[in-house]
Amino acid sequence: MEDWKTRITQIRPVEKQASDPEQACLVLIYPAGAELGKRYELAGSKEVTIGRGADCDIQVDRDSVSRRHAKVTRAGAGWQVADLGSTNGSYVNDAQITQYDLRDGDLLKIGNAIFKFLVGGNIETAYHEEIYRMTIIDGLTQAFNKRYFVENLEKEIPRCTRHQRPLSLVMFDIDHFKKINDEHGHLTGDYVLKELARRIRTRVRKEEVFARYGGEEFALTLPETSRDQSLKVSEDLRRLVSAEPFDFEGDRIPVTVSLGVATIVNEVAADPFIKMADDNLYKAKRAGRNRVVG
């Protein structure tokens, strides 16, 4: 049997060096668009303002961002971020802050834009490592992205069929997600996507690939997993999501998912396999949502 480690791309952490505050930057990792991956140097500045206004050092032209939203300043031997009384608040690693001492690797959320803070003598290596991560990881949910999922599936299908072992695929999405966005706002919608991904990851094994397929749709490959086993896994995921409401800034939002399952033992192309699971997902939705079909 092949070792699963030969099939999963490993992202090795950059070796830590002594922190050098003169080498610091913010990298935009979400949302996708022309600015994705853009690097904003902090070196040589004492204060960098972030906001929607044209006078800001880092301009984020999005409705969820205040005109002057936050500022990043030198603080002794490091850097500090402070909220400037923004409407939607500033967050570091998903916790709302008024003022915070930044550390290498922190995720700074301004509106629905997410920046990664990098600092230290290895900043060039760390930056290129982050750019590589962005080719396979979804910046919001930290799940694998569609590109990586499809590439992995194209390798997994022949491996499982060659050894005559079943391969299952689960496609699922959030029920009435548009209603959540419309009633609670897009920042809440982003939180729901991130929290759902966090809950699902607690159930994912090392040899499985969990990905954000697009929008509110996710995918999970289950190597060497029979149809009956994959239906049980999917039911566990459904319960995991619906067991507790999603709590965002005092709003408790009930969230459910619909799931479609497909299992193969003979080789097929990736696209028809995905369509098999996707068709079952839409059967689950037509049957009333918050259920598994496979």
Unreliable segments of 5+ consecutive residues: 1-18
Ends apart, CA distance between termini: 28 Å
Q: Which radius of gyration do the C-alpha atoms yield?
A: 21 Å
Number of helices: 6
Proportion of beta-strand residues: 25-35%
Indicate the overall shape. globular
Average pLDDT: 92
Structural class: alpha+beta
* Helix/strand order: EEEEEEEEEEEHHEHHEEHEEEHE
Largest sheet: 6 strands, antiparallel
Write down how many β-strands occur, each being a DSSP E stretch of 2 or more residues. Answer: 18
- Helix content class: 25-40%
How are strands sequenced across the largest beta sheet?
2-1-11-10-7-8
Verbal overview:
The protein is α+β, with helices and mostly antiparallel strands. The chain is 30% helix and 29% strand. The protein contains 6 helices and 18 strands. The strands form 4 sheets. It has a 6-stranded antiparallel β-sheet with strand order 2-1-11-10-7-8. A 5-stranded mixed β-sheet has the order 4-3-5-6-9, with no helix packed on it. A 5-stranded mixed β-sheet has the order 13-14-12-17-18, sandwiched between helices. The radius of gyration is 21 Å and the shape is globular. The two termini are 28 Å apart. The N terminus is likely disordered.
Helices and strands in order:
Blueprint: E1 24-30, E2 39-41, E3 47-51, E4 58-59, E5 70-75, E6 78-83, E7 90-92, E8 95-97, E9 99-101, E10 107-110, E11 113-119, H1 123-136, H2 146-162, E12 167-174, H3 177-184, H4 186-201, E13 209-214, E14 217-223, H5 227-242, E15 246-248, E16 251-253, E17 257-264, H6 270-286, E18 292-293
Parallel strand pairs: 3-4, 17-18
Antiparallel strand pairs: 1-2, 1-11, 3-5, 5-6, 6-9, 7-8, 7-10, 10-11, 12-14, 12-17, 13-14, 15-16
Helix pairs in contact: 3-4
